[in-house]
Amino acid sequence: MRRLAVGVGLALLPGAAAAQHVVVGPQAVFGDYVEVSSDLHYRGTGGGVAGTFTWKQLSVDASVAGVTYDPTADGTATASFKATQFDMRLRYYVTGPVSAEVGFMSRKAKPEFEAQSVGAVRAGARMSYLLGPGVRMGLHGGMLFGSKFSGGGTVSPIGALELGLTMGVDALRGRLRFTGDYDFQRISRKTDDGSGSVDVPIQQSLGRVGVALVF
Amino acid sequence: MRRLTWLPVVLAVTLSPGGLAAQTIQNATLRRAQQAFENLEYRQALTGGQAALRERLTGFERARAYEILAFTFSAMDSILRAVDAFKQVVLLEPERELDPNRTSPKALSAFQVALTQVLVVRQLRVDSVEFIGGQGVVGMRYTVTQPARVVTRVVGPAALKIDSSVANGQVNLRWPARLDSGDPVPAGTYTVVVEATVGQNSFSASQRIQIAHGAVDTLPHLISLPGYEYLPETEVPPKSWRPLGLALVYSGIALAGTSALSSGDLGSASLREASVVGTGVILAGFVMTLKKPAPQPARGNILYNRLLREQLARRNQEIAQENVRRRQQVEVRVVPLPKTGASR
Questions:
Q1: Number of domains chain A contains
Q2: Closest Cα to residue A203, out of A115, A141, A130?
Q3: A171 occurs within a structural domain
Q4: Please, what are the domains in chain B?
Q5: Alpha-carbon distance A165 to nearest alpha carbon in chain B (angstroms)
Q6: DSSP state letter for B237
């Protein structure tokens, strides 16, 4: 976070601003979280901040979201928990609408034992398309590698996947941008308590709607 | 008798104010001789004309007296004497012309014979012209009535010999109005003198001209090339359903992918989040489909305009160079001045 802040700060310097641009703004976040089985089903809302720094063919996306998940009525969970998720993506424009992405994600749950905290490295691709002047959308997908869980467990090399949809609509002559992001994660986690491998999958859908300033 | 009826008319026309520079005959004897000629009293006309020549006459009156004699001799079929009289007329008035439509063929042929028997330079004309010094010529022409050595000079602030040749009949000259150094002749009033010589006989005619110098007009810079106009560098593409189609495809992939990727152990995945964002994407795609498409750069037009700008810049550069050259040039304006005296 500290490094991101330094990067954003540097990007806002007048001399640097000419060759690059920065988008940063708050977001309203709402999500759906399921772990182990459909009984542990949560829904929640929260807030967050997202920023994008673009320089030539490179872009860096970073976002922090805090969501308070409450058990749903159709499940057996009884306690709420707060998930703080940090996402980072480094994107490089390849050709046409296609960009390559690498990054990492980290989600911490409090109280710690109500849900799994997880961290992983991500790699994937994004397709972006300009719908019209100042209106863009993108579809991204990828895999999560090296997942670590607070409660232990492993994931097969292709067991953690993510998919997302993004959109941005510029306003005020490009000074303001309305954003909408959707991220879906499915992590096929497995644990072994000595009696054999047990599937304890994790699945999260996260929607974010926000407004951002463009510099 | 019929053929003689036009003679008074000819003389009347010849001597009319409009015919010869509004001069009038003051001498009484000459007036009587003219009256006698008009009345077809040729003997009295001859006597009167010869008597008038013995009196003090102006050059104009003397020429008229010889003319009365010439016409009278022609009417009396005394051609040789008519020719002699016409020679005196030509010597007194080298520019004298007879109207072939109003003059008897007999008098006309006598006049033509007289012209070939005297040496005169007639009808000296200088064209009124304007040109850039060194790039044009002044047209001159004259008629010399006998084969003669003719020298043409210009006398004024600078004295120059234009031409020296043996000529007969009409001569056309082209004078570049330049000094030997190549510079234009200085501005001022000049006299073009044409001097014809045959043995001891010589005759000269002159024409005054005014030479003025002026600045050469420079060319204005171009802001456009005639016949070529700039084309719009952007063009609005036709309306398309592509934005909505792509929004539907992207949103559909996101929803379908979510369903496909969700784990069966966790029940059906929540599509609430995907639906909210997907709806936004589809809405944006729909709006963009309805909206007038944004102008797109027209590459062909941009290249065309660039070419046009380059051509214009090149042409203006040439104009600038031409103007630099023109500012160093001088425009020569030559205007012939009215004659004030007779040639001799």
A1: 1
A2: A115
A3: yes
A4: 2-117 (1.25.40), 121-214 (2.60.40.10), 234-325 (no CATH)
A5: 6
A6: P
Q: What are A128's two structure tokens? A: 């972006």
Residues B276-324 have pLDDT tens digits of 999 999 999 998 888 887 788 999 999 999 999 999 999 999 999 998 8
Nearest alpha carbon to residue B47 among B65, B62, B64: B65
Residue A37 sits in a domain whose CATH number is 2.40.160
Closest residue of chain B to A161, computed from CA coordinates: B261
Beta bridge partners of A205: A32, A184
- Predicted confidence (pLDDT) per residue in A42-63, tens digit: 999 999 999 999 988 899 999 9
Q: Are B334 and B126 in contact (CB under 8 A)?
A: yes
Q: Is residue A154 part of a domain?
A: yes
Q: Closest CB to B266: pick one of A37, A139, A166.
A: A37
In a domain, A169, yes or no: yes
**A1 in a structural domain:** no
pLDDT the model gives residue B46: 92
Smallest CA–CA distance from B295 into chain A, residue? A133
Contact check, Cβ <8 Å, B277/A181: yes
ipTM of the complex model: 0.84
User: Is residue A59 within 8 angstroms of chain B, CB to CB?
Assistant: no
Q: List residues bridging with B14 in a β-sheet.
A: none
Residues of chain A with confidence (pLDDT) below 70: 1-19
Domain range for residue A110?
A: 28-46+66-214
